[in-house]
What does this fold into?
Amino acid sequence: MDCRSCLTLAEAADAVRKGKLVIFPTESIFGLGCGIIYADALAGIFSLKKRAHTKALPVIIGGRGQLGLAAVHVPPDALRLMDAFWPGPLSIVFKARPDLPPLLTAGSGRVAVRVPAHPAARELCLRNGMPLVATSANISSAPATAKPEELDPELLRGTAGIFFGDPAPSGGLPSTVAELVQDGAVHVLRPGAVSEDHLREAGFAVV
It folds into this structure.
């Protein structure tokens, strides 16, 4: 692809801090993201992807130390889930910080957060000092991709560029999105790479 669109880690982090959109690798596919505090950038993601505003945006963090920048109230059972599946493809739903833009949570007041297994995605969060939106880099209803040559040109033009940090995405299932319910049981909101069997094997009831 045209490397005029390619960003170094430092350039990608700088773009995020300036409220711009970037494309970056995750374990499975390329993600599209921005800093979670920038309402205009969040609106840009919805517009660029043609995504319904009723669908909240998922978030990644560079490590547990950034969780408090996105969420409040981390119950003990959430810590158990984090111990079992982070870094990895399990997004856990938390109560969102009240000062975050409502667009991020689609007005729900809840946010799905994970620490990705991809080292470059984690480093991008750490380098810019804030959690990132990490939605698939595709137009809504179009397939997500692990191959840069398959990225939609319109999508790429709407961003500051693409950060290619190694390794390349491996393809496969997206992250699982789950919430904790009564008595520490887990409810899967979106099936993905962490299966219900994986959750049961880690000692969680699934409802």
